[in-house]
Amino acid sequence: MKPYPIEFCGNCRTGSLTKEMNSATCDSYLPTEKRRCASWCAGHYLHYERVVYICSPCNPRATGELGRKRLERNLRNAEWYSRAAVASHATPIAPHLLFTRFMDEFSPGERNLGLELATEVLKRCDELWVFGDRISEGMQAEIELAQKRGMPIIRISQAQADEIVKYYEEGDENNG
Question: Quick check: 161 and 139 in contact, CB under 8 A?
Fold first, then answer.
């Protein structure tokens, strides 16, 4: 698996290669400490103890062939966001990657069941990672549940999300 060079800080909720690249990074963000906040214990660095819920668009907002292509793109992006989480020493959970394997995203009943199941998964995670600036209806419900539960929410901007996608697309092209 091609690692991703930016790690996301569980304290300040930002990600960057260096503090100079992102002045919003918190003061305890130490690049020498595996590029993560100093407040994280050593166990987080080695054992992937944080279980993070990958919150990104799934619903293609279209039907037919266009809808299928958009769904494929959204799921591919979720795969790459999950890879970035692993590179940040977190265990990613992306229910939309799992549930769309055996449930029909284009069937309203199955989509609603998938959203309910994803809610149950979210309740068992440590953090919610929100990718991109466009928040879908399903993502909004996940954010509200995480807020209600006092769960840390890490927002990854659209620019960072685009960078992750580009990074892995280039890696796939170089490997294939």
Answer: no
Contacts of 74 (CB under 8 A, 6+ apart): 56, 57, 58, 59, 60, 96
- Please count the other Cβ atoms lying within 10 Å of the Cβ belonging to residue 159: 9
**How far is the C-alpha of 147 from the C-alpha of 83, rounded, in Å?**
25
The phi, psi pair for 144, rounded to 5°, reads: -65, -40
Most confident of 3-17, 61-75, 158-172: 61-75
Looking at the chain, which runs of residues are DSSP E strands? Answer: 7-8, 15-16, 29-30, 36-37, 50-55, 90-93, 127-131, 153-156
Please state the φ and ψ torsions of residue 154, each to the nearest 5 degrees: -105, 120
Q: What CA–CA distance (Å, rounded) separates 128 from 143?
A: 8
Return the bridge partners of 92, or none.
52
Name all domains of the chain by residue range, CATH numbers in brackets.
49-175 (3.40.50)
DSSP conformational letter for 20: G
Banded pLDDT at 7 (limits 50, 70, 90): low
pLDDT of residue 18: 44
Burial class of residue 174, CB neighbours in 10 A (0-12, 13-18, 19+): exposed
Residue 2's Cβ-side half-sphere holds a number of Cα atoms within 13 Å equal to 15
